[in-house]
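User: Is it possible to get a 3D structure for a protein together with its bound compound? The compound here is adenosine-5'-[phenylalaninyl-phosphate]. I've pasted both below.
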Amino acid sequence: MDPLEPVVTPSQTPAEPLRVAAESSSALEELATLDREPDVEAWRVRWLGRRSQLALALRGLGRLPASERAAAGRALNQAKKELTEGCRNRLAELREQATRRLGALDVSLPGRPLPRGGLHPITLTERAVVAAFAAMGFHVIEGPEVELDYYNFEALRIPADHPARDAMDTFWLAPPEGADARRSRPLLLRTHTSPNQIRFMEANDPPIRLIAPGRTYRNEATDATHEWMITQTEVLAVDRGLTLAHLKGTLYEFARRLFGEDREIRFRCDYFPFVEPGVEVSVSSPGGWIEILGAGMVHPEILARMGYDPEAYTGFAAGLGVERIAMLRHGIRDIRRFYENDLRFLRQF
Ligand code: FA5
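Assistant: Yes, that's possible. Here is the predicted structure of the complex:
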C-alpha cells in the first residue's frame, strides 16, 4: 500500500459523502473573504488537496453500497467542480485587482524630479583629503574603531598616568560578555587614528607611506570647533633620510591641494608623546586661525620598539581633523552643523 495514500476508515457511511458535499458552500463563502493569493492557495490545499475531506470521500466511493454510490458520486463531483471553479475565479479576480492598482501608477510619468540623495560634506572632504595624499604616493589602510588601550595609548608612549591622556577624554568600554573582567585588556573607542601607526609598523617593514582615515571619539563637551565624534586621517611615512622638511613639504602640498594657493598656513611647536619634535598646523579663516592637525617626527623609541633601526630610519606622522578642514573649505563657522541632520544645510553640498 502507498504509505502516502490516506486511509479511508471502514466506518464511512453513505451519509458521509453527502455531508462533505454540503460543506462546500461554506468553503465558497470563506473563499470570497480571502484577498491574498497565498491564502487562496492554502484554501485550495485544505479543500481540494490530496488529503482533503473531499478527496478522501471520492476515494472511498467504492466502499459504499452500489445503490448509494451513484448519488454520492454525483454530489461529490458537483462539489469538486464548484470548488475548483470558485478557486480559479477568485484567483483571476485578485490578479485583475492587482493589475488595476498597478495601472493607476504610471511609472514612466515624466517631469517630476525624483528626490536625489548626495554624499555628506564630511565624506566629500574625507575623499578630497585621501585623493590629495594618494596623488603624493600614500596608500590607504583602515583600523578598528573599538581599540585596545595598548594601541591607543601604551604603544604610543602614553602610559596610564600620563597627562596626555587628559587631552583625550575617553569612552571606555565594558569587557565583552562572558570575558573575565580581571584578565581582559582594557577596551575603548579610539580617541585618534594614531593606533593605525603601530598596527601597521608591527606587521610591515619600511619604506612606509600610508594614510588611515576613520572615525574617532572623545568624551568631551561640544562647542563651535569641538565635536565628540571626529573624523581624522592619519599620515605615516617611514624611510631612510626623512626629515622635518619632508613633513613640512608634504603638509604644504596637501594644504595647497585642498585650500588653494592663497590660504595662510601656520606651523607651531606642539607636544605629542609619540613624536619628537611635534608641531600643530593651523589655517587662516575670517574668524581667526583654525587648528587642523597635529604632526611630528616619529619618536625614535617607537621605531626601535617596532624593530626598525632608528639610526637608519626616520619617519614623520600627522593626524588631520577632517571636520575642521571641511569648515575651512566651505566657510562653516560651527562644527555642530555637520551632524544635526538638517537637510536644508546638507543639501548645499
Ligand atoms: C591627535 O589626535 C594626534 N593623534 C595627532 C598626531 C598624529 C600628532 C600623528 C602627531 C603625529 P589632536 O588631539 O590635536 O592630536 O587632534 C588632531 C586634530 O584632530 C586636531 O588638530 C583637530 O583638527 C582635530 N580634532 C581633535 N579634537 C577635536 C574635536 N573635539 N573636535 C573637532 N576636531 C578635533
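Residues 17-103 form one domain. The first helix runs from residue 15 to 32.
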